[in-house]
Design goal:
It contains 2 helices and 18 strands. The protein is mainly beta. The chain has 2 domains: 3-138, Immunoglobulins (Immunoglobulin-like); 141-223, Immunoglobulin-like, CATH 2.60.40. A 5-stranded antiparallel beta sheet has the order 1-2-4-8-6, with no helix packed on it. The protein is globular, with a radius of gyration of 20 Å. The termini are far apart. 21% of the residues are buried. Residues 1-18 have low confidence and may be disordered.
Length: 224
């Protein structure tokens, strides 16, 4: 394999979203921004004993061209070995939907120190976690906890559509159809649906969801 291909595959591996990697970590797998908050903080830690990192943070959207209604401060800072720091996320626009949640992404790019070794390859690591905006009127703990149980499912050929009647995002995981577990997780948007292609045959589906704290809910079951 050529050096160019090796570099490309290494970059792909380092670019995968994860809450931590050797030497650097963030304090959560997701950020919930309640509508009545002035700001939310996210901890950042340099877990190494000697290396210094330069950290750049920003909020992004999956929708091309969308103006992101959040800023992060400080957007750029240096973090010393063993040091904990925090970034603050602030809402800059009141135009977000108030009848359902909205989702964005918090990006934290860790830029390592320059290597003293010749011909060495170095990569910056971008940690990407969900930022979920939750309108104040929807801050109902019981409704939030039970949202994943409200999903309904229909089948068309080898595709299953998960429909979410609630105003909350449901992050499905540990999904199985007739006992055959699917390898992926799925984020079903509020008051919308998500299509799962190439689903196993069968009419019984079991799933769990990821809660606000990054933990798993109890199992839920439904017929398709």
């Amino acid at each position: 394999m050529s050096l160019l291909k090796k570099s490309f595959y290494s970059l792909l591996l380092f670019a995968l979203s994860t809450p931590s990697f050797a030497g650097f970590s963030v304090g959560s797998t997701r950020v919930i921004y309640n509508g009545n908050m002035k700001e939310v903080s996210l901890s950042v830690k340099n877990t190494e004993d000697s290396n210094v990192y330069l950290i750049r943070s920003w909020v992004s959207s999956d929708k091309a061209g969308e103006k992101v209604p959040f800023i992060i401060t400080p957007p750029l800072f240096r973090i010393e070995p063993g040091q904990d720091n925090a970034v603050r996320i602030t809402q800059t626009s009141s135009s977000l939907a108030q009848d359902k949640e909205s989702v964005y992404w918090v990006n934290t790019l860790a830029i390592p120190p320059a290597s003293k070794e010749k011909n060495s390859l170095q990569f910056s690591i971008n940690t990407r976690i969900k930022l979920i905006y939750r309108p104040t009127a929807l801050n109902n703990k019981d409704a939030i906890a039970k949202a994943y149980q409200q999903l309904t499912f229909t089948r068309s050929g080898n595709a299953i559509t998960a429909s979410n009647p609630t105003p909350y995002y449901v992050n499905m995981t540990k999904v199985s159809v007739n006992g055959k577990e699917l390898k992926e997780g799925y984020m079903v948007p509020p008051k919308s649906s998500f299509k799962i292609d190439n689903a196993p045959a069968g009419n019984s589906i079991v799933w769990q969801a990821i809660n606000d704290f990054g933990g798993l809910t109890e199992k839920a079951k439904a017929s398709i």
